[in-house]
Amino acid sequence: MTETAAYLGIFVVAAAVYAMRLAGYVLGSRVRRNSTASRVLDTLPGAALAAVLALSLLEYASLPDLLALAATTVLFLWSGKTLPSLAAGLAIAVLNAHLVA
Amino acid sequence: MQRDPAARSEVRHERGAWAAFREGAAATVGLALGGAVFGLLFGVLAIGRGLDALQAVIMSATVFAGAAQVAVLEIWREPLPYLPIGITAALVCCRHVLMGVTLYDTLSYRRSRPPFAALFLLTDANWVLTARNTATTHRIAFFVGSGLAMYIAWMVGTLVGVAIPGLLDDATISGLRLGGALFIAILLCIFLRGSRPSRLLEPAIAAAVAVLASRFADNAVALIVGVAAAAGVTLQRELRSRD
Predict the structure, then answer these.
(1) In 3-state terms, what secondary structure has residue B107?
(2) Which residue from B68, B69, B131 is spatially nearest to B98, judged by alpha carbons?
(3) Does residue B3 lie within any of the structural domains?
(4) Closest residue to A50, CB basis, from B50, B62, B207
(5) Is B58 within a domain?
(6) Same domain, B71 and B163
(7) B43 domain residue, yes or no
(8) What is the pLDDT of residue B3?
(9) ipTM of this complex > 0.90?
């Protein structure tokens, strides 16, 4: 693959992602606050996060991975601290991957 | 000598903005670990897919979207399929459209033109943190501070990832793959924290419908179907509450 082709590919990805970021802002300028449309839109990012998480887990998660996810979630809900919650989940996932390997 | 009240107001505004910027950066420190791990994973995977270190770093610097970058690596081959690459990146990031809509009031504060540079920093993390932080009047500064903290962590992670691909064994890389899901789980907790139980319905429906739809369609399409189903439920509830 030539360098030009690779950099053109990177440009395509960057442009597509930025277009999505800009599109939301432009669309937001046309939605009246406290309208039905705005209340529907307010709930959608949470729905999108939940759907992304569910699809990720469906794709590759094993039982120990679900345990790692549960550990991170419970620890975060209990402590409110992101760093140790994430570290605990990652430690379980990496340990499990080594045990399976 | 008395200063112009407008100038004093402007100085107070700038001090408040700087404080909000620092508050946003500080609030993101924990989540930045997830960003750094994801960046590291991308760096390792990119080298494995044939990108050189400079290309991987430039992609991270100009795209700044972990899920999209990892997704396009799956179809990164000779000759490069530009259209599928662009469509895949856009679909994976389609939730940014929704996030941009909800942040319009924040990002357009005191502005006549779109904040093009700030929009580049839009990620799941700084969107969730900004959406939950209604206390400050300088929310765009909070958003930018949070986004820059994530950007720095992401770039540090990528640089480490492209520098040490041989040092991480396959099992560790496989384990780190879960980092993205753990990161999103925390974001979801932050987003839903303190919500009424009825607000949990839409995310649950979106997840269930997306999983069901993924049996018949690509994950990017399934994601849109799941979110559309959640939108339908909210719309129905809104219309019923009007009657």
Answers:
(1) helix
(2) B131
(3) no
(4) B207
(5) yes
(6) yes
(7) yes
(8) 58
(9) no
The closest alpha carbon to B33, from B191, B187, B145, B183, belongs to B183
pLDDT in tens, A73-97: 999 999 888 888 888 998 998 898 8
Question: What pLDDT does residue A33 have?
Answer: 67
Residue B2 lies in a domain: no
Residue B183 CA to residue B37 CA, distance in Å, equals 10
Nearest CB neighbour to B89, from listed A17, A83, A89: A17
User: CA nearest A56: which of B65, B154, B190, B180?
Assistant: B180
Q: What count of residues does chain A have?
A: 101
Q: Is the bond preceding B79 in cis, omega lying within 30 degrees of 0? A: yes
pLDDT of residue B26: 93
Co-location of B208 and B232 in the same domain: yes
Host domain of residue B126: 11-194
Q: pTM of the entire structure?
A: 0.75
In whole angstroms, give the CA distance from residue A11 to residue B227. 28
Are B165 and B187 found together in one domain? yes
Interface test with A, best of B29, B44, B96, B243 (most A CBs within 10 A): B96
B49's enclosing H/E stretch is: none
Give the gyration radius of chain B's Cα atoms.
20
**Contact in structure between B28 and B149 (CB atoms under 8 Å):** yes
pLDDT below 50 — which residues of chain B? none
Task: Say whether both B153 and B216 belong to one domain.
Answer: no
Domain boundaries, chain A: 61-101
Distance in Å, alpha carbon of A90 to nearest chain B alpha carbon:
6
The mean pLDDT value of chain A amounts to: 86
**Both tokens assigned to B77:** 């081959």
Per-residue pLDDT of B161-217, as tens digits, reads: 999 867 778 888 778 778 778 878 887 888 787 777 777 899 999 999 999 999 998
CA distances to A47, B35, B70, B205 from B221, in Å: 14, 25, 17, 16
* Pairwise CA distance, residues A13 & A7, whole Å: 10
Q: Is A8 on the interface with B (CB under 8 A)?
A: yes
For residue B13, what pLDDT is reported?
Answer: 62
